[in-house]
């Protein structure tokens, strides 16, 4: 697992320094402050390739470039494996436009999965992408498998010779379903764990055809309203989750086959990088997705050791981990703009109790959970309550504005009516 990451003169802040928790890590912060950037760096540190370097069709996951080209740029990182920690230092070489690491290949971090924000996926599998000796380097193995959003569905081909590296969700799911073997069982189990709730299980339906011109048997999902819907017609939220489920099962099946060939035991360690997994998900699903991701590897590995690093904009996700957050194993990092500079802070995880409180916490920095208009009117009304010179006409105007933005049961009415009646503003 990745333990420590430090970046100097690269990314949105002059320096960023993080010591990860061994289990769950959450990253919050406004748009553009570097959450995805941190995930890219963590992926690179563990695999030594940028996602877009492996699959040039990707629109994100590009090589990190120094901020000040004239100054030294450095990425330091460390892994812990068993009881040891291995430390690495990397500097940017302007002539090569790449990062050179002083020590050789990285220590094996286990399987590394990366679910990018745009529906791309990447995996680095120690059985298929790793070589321990330099003379194995010519074995022609890909440095990682990186899928663009379309590749996950339709398959991934090697650039050079068009060889299929992966058949994609549509063909594999249909094949697995006909085979009625382990892969389909795993897929069904993983879909079950990632479902929003027990009475809304994502369950495979019968195979179907969706077009006269598409010869592929198309997997379907059983919907709660009795229909079976082709996976390509499923909602964005469902497609995000089923593509993730497929990706995990595909990675694991291929890993098992590779390990069999190598005559080695299957991996038990994995690192999971997830960027805004909540996008397209209904609130009730946002509440269950992180705990589900923490459990999902149980379906695949025996006694898995999973490190999850998740960037999120969702107060529901923050609230959902309250029961399981453990300061010894988990960590929360928050990015903020302080005096026009990006600052990364490891925050103590204090339970907020509910979603609304998370909105106004350091994680999201909102002043309230109201609409912008209501917030503004409420602030004026709160000031008016203690303003000696506030007159009746102004108060009545404000009262009308409050009615337009607040709910009938808003707690502010109590205060407002009490003072307004006392001052004779309203009767
Ligand atoms: N490949 C890169 N090289 C250098 N800096 C980058 C790179 N990618 C992102 N950044 C920095 O991170 C900022 C965007 O951060 P990003 O991680 O996309 O934000 P978010 O927090 O919304 O995920 C950019 O404005 C830039 O400063
Ligand atoms: Mg982002």
Strand and helix layout:
Blueprint: E1 2-8, E2 15-19, E3 24-29, H1 35-47, H2 51-54, E4 74-81, E5 84-93, E6 98-101, E7 111-115, E8 121-124, H3 126-129, E9 145-147, H4 149-154, E10 156-157, E11 164-166, H5 169-179, H6 182-193, E12 203-204, E13 220-222, E14 228-230, H7 236-262, E15 269-275, H8 283-296, E16 305-311, H9 315-320, E17 331-338, E18 341-347, H10 355-359, H11 372-385, H12 392-405, H13 412-422
Parallel strand pairs: 3-16, 3-17, 7-15, 15-16
Antiparallel strand pairs: 1-2, 1-4, 4-5, 5-6, 7-8, 8-9, 10-11, 12-13, 13-14, 17-18
Helix pairs in contact: 5-6, 6-7, 11-12, 11-13
Bound molecules: adenosine-5'-diphosphate and magnesium ion (MG).
Adenosine-5'-diphosphate (ADP) is lined by residues 10-12, 29, 31-37, 62, 64-65.
Main features:
427 residues, alpha+beta, Rossmann fold, eight-stranded mixed sheet, globular, binds adenosine-5'-diphosphate, binds magnesium ion
Shape: globular
CATH C-level class of the largest domain: Alpha Beta
The named CATH superfamily of the largest domain: P-loop containing nucleotide triphosphate hydrolases
CATH level 3 topology of the largest domain: Rossmann fold
Largest β-sheet summary: 8 strands, mixed
Rg for CA atoms: 26 Å
Count of discrete alpha- or pi-helical segments spanning 4 or more residues = 13
Number of domains: 2
């Amino acid at each position: 697992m990745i333990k420590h990451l430090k970046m100097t003169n690269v990314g949105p802040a002059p320096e960023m320094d993080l010591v990860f928790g061994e289990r769950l890590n959450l990253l919050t912060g406004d748009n553009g402050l570097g959450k995805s950037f941190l995930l890219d760096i963590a992926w690179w540190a563990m695999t030594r390739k940028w996602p877009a370097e492996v699959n040039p069709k990707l629109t994100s996951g590009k090589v990190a470039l120094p901020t000040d080209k004239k100054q030294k740029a450095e990425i330091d990182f460390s892994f812990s494996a068993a009881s040891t920690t291995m430390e690495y230092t990397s500097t940017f070489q302007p002539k090569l436009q790449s990062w050179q690491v002083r020590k050789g290949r990285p220590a094996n971090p286990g399987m590394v999965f990366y679910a990018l924000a745009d529906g791309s996926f990447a995996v680095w599998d120690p059985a298929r992408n790793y070589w321990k000796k330099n003379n194995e380097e010519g074995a022609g193995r890909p440095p990682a498998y990186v899928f663009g959003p379309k590749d996950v569905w339709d398959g991934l081909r090697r650039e050079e010779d068009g060889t299929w590296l992966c058949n994609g969700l549509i063909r594999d799911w249909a094949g697995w379903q006909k085979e009625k073997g382990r892969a389909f069982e795993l897929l069904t189990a993983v879909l079950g764990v990632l479902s929003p709730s027990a009475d809304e299980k994502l369950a495979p339906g019968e195979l179907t055809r969706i077009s006269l011109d598409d010869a592929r048997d198309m997997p379907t999902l059983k919907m709660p309203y009795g229909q079976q819907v082709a996976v390509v017609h499923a909602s964005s939220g469902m497609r995000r989750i089923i593509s993730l489920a497929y990706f995990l099962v595909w990675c694991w099946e291929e890993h098992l086959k590779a390990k069999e060939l190598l005559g080695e035991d299957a991996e038990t360690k994995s690192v999971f990088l997830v960027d805004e997994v909540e996008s397209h998900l209904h609130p009730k699903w946002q509440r269950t997705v992180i705990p589900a991701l923490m459990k999902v590897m149980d379906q695949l590995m025996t006694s898995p050791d999973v490190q999850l690093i998740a960037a999120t904009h969702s107060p529901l996700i923050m609230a959902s981990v309250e029961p399981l957050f453990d300061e010894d194993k988990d960590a929360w990092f928050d990015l903020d703009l302080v005096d026009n500079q990006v600052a990364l802070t490891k925050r103590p995880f204090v339970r907020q109790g509910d979603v609304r409180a998370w909105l106004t916490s350091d994680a999201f920095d909102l002043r309230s959970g109201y609409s912008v208009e209501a917030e503004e009117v409420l602030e004026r009304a709160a000031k008016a309550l203690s303003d000696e010179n506030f007159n009746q006409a102004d108060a009545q105007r404000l009262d009308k504005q409050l009615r337009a933005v607040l709910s009938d049961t808003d707690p502010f009415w109590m205060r407002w009516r009490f003072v307004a009646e006392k001052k004779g503003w309203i009767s």
